[in-house]
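ligand=zinc ion
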Amino acid sequence: MQLPKYKKKKRIKLKICQEPGCGREFWGHPIAKYCELHRDIKQRQKQKKDVESIESKNIIFRHNYTEVLELNFKCCLEGCNSVFPIKVFPKQFVYPRFCMEHRNDFKRQNFLRVMRHRNRED
Ligand SMILES: [Zn+2]
Ligand SMILES: [Zn+2]
């Protein structure tokens, strides 16, 4: 008995890269998700996610100060008007977005929950 020929073929399909923004077509195994470039994990999302998390917790504060200064920043959390001091360093532009209290993810979410509750009662 002879095996049908197609069984010997490599199971290679034309796929589309799953990396957001890539969409390149490539030939790969049915389970392959990424094109040749994005098969390298270093080329994938992770880097982008790191940037996003930096921006979600920090602000970019552009300034021309040439000496260290202490400035008051306002907490960016909606409903929190806390002002907190921050040391601003020359040539450093990334600073915390939230007051001390709200730099903690859990406390921030809790605060938002309380605020929503309060708004409903008004
Ligand atoms: Zn790709
Ligand atoms: Zn705050």
